[in-house]
Each structure stands twice: as C-alpha cells, then as structure tokens.
C-alpha cells in the first residue's frame, strides 16, 4: 500500500495509535472475535461466547445519554460493557455504577420481575 498519499501528520498519528485510544479501540471493537478474545482472556473464561457486539452503543436512560465503548451480549444473556479508559479525571467507580444501572434500565422491559433482570458487567 502506498502511504505517500497521506500527510506526514496523518502518518505520525496513525503510527502512534494504541488500543486504548478511542479511535483505535472503536475500530478493533467492531470485530466480535476480537471482543470475545479480550473477554475470554481477561475473565479467564475460554469457552465464553459473544453473541452480539455494538461499538459506541448509545444508551438513553435515567435522563442522561451515555456512550458505551462496546456493548457485548454473551451466550447466557449477560450484557458486558467493555470500557476503555486512559484518563484519571473520572470517578470510575461511580461512572461504572451509573453505566451498569443505565444499561440495566435500558434493556429491561417494563414490568420485568426483579429475578429476571439481566446481568450487566462493566469491564
């Protein structure tokens, strides 16, 4: 491939991308197999199966819109949100608690018995 068609700044930006950078993770997370391998490795669950992947999943719940880096649905119905963070400015514990509650509220039909509420995990 001829990379000469791109400016020096564009080539340098691309060369310096890491998987934790939002743009790169967005591209990587589009592939179900990649997300499945990440989850299998980090959770030490070699048989885990990802059914569906939604990168940059927008969830509107509890009067606020959030964007999940990637939302996966596992074979057992668990919702798995993979969040890529490199900053330290966020209160990650409260943020993850809010994301889990928002995801639960958005994907649980009205009237669902509490025993049937889907499991949501943030990674």
Low-confidence stretches: none
Instruction: Specify the structural class.
Output: alpha+beta
State the helical fraction: 25-40%
- Termini separation (Å)? 36 Å
Structural shape: globular
Q: Which whole number gives the mean pLDDT?
A: 88
Order of helices and strands: HHHEEEHE
How would you sum up the major sheet?
4 strands, mixed
Radius of gyration: 17 Å
Spatially, the strands of the biggest sheet line up as 1-2-3-4
Question: What's the tally of helices?
Answer: 4
Oligomeric state of the chains in view = single chain
Strand content of the residues, in percent?
15-25%
Number of β-strand runs: 4
Describe the structure.
With 123 residues, the chain is an alpha+beta fold. The chain has four helices and four strands. The protein has helices spanning 8-15, 22-28, 32-43, 92-107; strands at 50-61, 64-74, 79-82, 120-122. Strand 3, helix 4 and strand 4 (120-122) form a beta-alpha-beta unit. The radius of gyration is 17 Å and the shape is globular. The protein starts with 7 loop residues before the first helix and ends with a strand.
Outline the fold blueprint.
Blueprint: H1 8-15, H2 22-28, H3 32-43, E1 50-61, E2 64-74, E3 79-82, H4 92-107, E4 120-122
Parallel strand pairs: 3-4
Antiparallel strand pairs: 1-2, 2-3
